[in-house]
Amino acid sequence: MAPAAGARTLAHPARQEIRLEAVLHALSDPVRLCVVRELAAAEGELTCSCFDLPVTKSTTTHHFRVLRESGIVRQTYRGTAKMNGLRRDDLEALFPGLLTGILEAAELQAGRLGGS
Q1: Which of 16, 46, 76, 107 qualifies as a cystine partner to 50, CB 3.0-4.6 A?
Q2: How far apart are the first and last CA of the chain?
Q3: Percentage of residues in the chain with pLDDT exceeding 90?
Q4: Structurally, how many domains does the chain consist of?
């Protein structure tokens, strides 16, 4: 469905433009990995304000931009809220098992290190 006239839209890479090195770079940051883990555990999309991150608002904005521009998340506006959802289908089609493997490894690491 096309956005309404005057609606704010954000640029996302098309599926065929998503690069492995960009995905791996985005997931190499602990804050961004935390965001992806929370999105993976969610039933649906989450607003940016749902995340309690240990960084400033401007740094949070940067992290979400990196995730969006790498093709890991899709961001859409609903009213004034910016909604975030994982692009699981796109990532699985391009890199089968990658996201699942990274999420499983992050869970094991969190358990081993006593983090969340």
Answers
A1: 46
A2: 37
A3: 75
A4: 1
Give domain status of residue 53, yes or no.
yes
Inter-residue contact 40 to 86 (CB < 8 Å): yes
Kindly indicate the confidence band of residue 1, based on its pLDDT and cuts at 50, 70 and 90. Answer: very low
- CA 97, 99, 102, 106 torsion-angle sign: negative
Q: What is the pTM of this model?
A: 0.88
Is 75 a member of any domain? Answer: yes
